[in-house]
Amino acid sequence: MKTGFIFLFLIVSIAGFSQQKDNLLTKKEQQQGWVLLFDGLSTNGWTTPSGKPVPGGWQVKDGALSTAAGGKGGDIVTTNEYTNFILTLDFNIAPGCNSGVKYFYTKYATGGNLGMEYQVLDDVLAEDNKKDNHLCGSLYDILAPDTKAKQLNPPGQWNTIKIVAKGRNVEHWLNGKRLLSFQRDGSEFGSAVEKSKFDKTVPAFGSVEKGKILLQEHGGTAAFKNIKLLILK
Hints:
The chain is mainly β.
């Protein structure tokens, strides 16, 4: 009995030790050059798009950066801009929520402040679920995700995003599955932009070389954690 208890204790201890804690880099990630964009404790490294401190409509709670219900916090962005990168993060949304993660967010000469949006959505209950290119994992209003590869956990459960941007090539991933792959200078992308709400931007939408990362507040409750970025050479 005593030997069995010790053996069970060791298994549980090893399992707990091996489980990666939130908002920390593993030794391998540190060696590879990954950086944390959210420390799990504060809003350091984030501002409003106009450069002001993160408003009270956002809160850091239980190791996550979250929109407060009814808080009207608005969008927040990283203080730094990025060109070639891999971005990963976890998100958890309330039923009916509409949110998003934008990248290459910058000011266009015509069109205002814009970014390419990885749509975060409750595909079942959110109001904006009528178009394929508005569903979770899409490049919002432009390209739809691969529904066969898509494995979206329901509201209340965590999902993991990965966005890969290198040169003109971009990929959207969800929970380890690639949902979308496109070239920002490709004909498919260009045709889709022409049919979107971004057809009149100057320069052409998605053609900018760098921009910030944006977390969208769209009236729903959304939480983000483990926000990590690797700069690609």
